[in-house]
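Researcher: I'm preparing a figure for a lab meeting and need a structural model of a single chain. I don't have an experimental structure, so a prediction will have to do for now. The sequence is pasted below. Please return the structure as tokens so I can convert it later.
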Amino acid sequence: MTLTRLIAIPACVTTLAIAGARREPLSMATGTLAAAALGTPSAAHGTAAAALETLSAASNAQVSTSPSSEDARFASMRRAMVDRQLKARGIRSEAVLAAMAKVPRHRFVRSVDTDLAYSDMPLPIGSGQTISQPFIVAYMTEVLDVARGEKVLEIGTGSGYQAAVLAGLARDVYSIEIIPELAERARARLQELGYRNVHVRVGDGYLGWPEAQPFDRIMVTAAPDHVPEPLVQQLASNGHMVIPVGRGAQKLLVISKTSRGVVREETLDVQFVPLVRAPR
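Model: Understood. Here is the structure written out token by token.
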């Protein structure tokens, strides 16, 4: 993967309180890689053209109330999403593209939004939270570089969609959600869809999942103002963590544990809502 600046940081990171509403990215601003991948000056809610193309492809499919026709219609929408939103913007991992083409995104959105599930934008999922736009899900998954047999920690379960994508790539996915109703809904949906290797619990994602450590990969889907030290500690040797960091201007970082210590690599300029802490 191609990344920008390489900066060594100490393994110990000062712990600060984090406040605000958590969640998945609402937008992605331009950056060195964003401009190359998107070819547009902004992707706050995705390009309107890609969204319209995806919806147009869906409308050309036969609409029927029968399950088989509905499955075919949504499969067509997924293929359009992969081709026009992901491949066209530089997502190259065959494993990631296959996972995005397989996971039924429409099952992770509200029923009123199923026809918009594969459009190029985030969508509300309740509790003031969103499901991220497909490109940012694919991009973060590709950068995380998950291999079969690895154990992944996800901070911010949300709808469960990102966990489902990761589940197709990893041995096990441990996902933490601070909003109980979202955690329960995601757990039920993932079980219904047969994702047996995803483990969901309610908790403060800043603290990670100590009893299940170490993790080969960690993905964080909301932005703290610094890299949480508990997550660094729970990262396995030679492991990687993808995390948005900052207030206002934010960077999507890849944190790696190497023989040289903890290394930070900057990728995209992004805009995520803040990570929330449990009351202390």
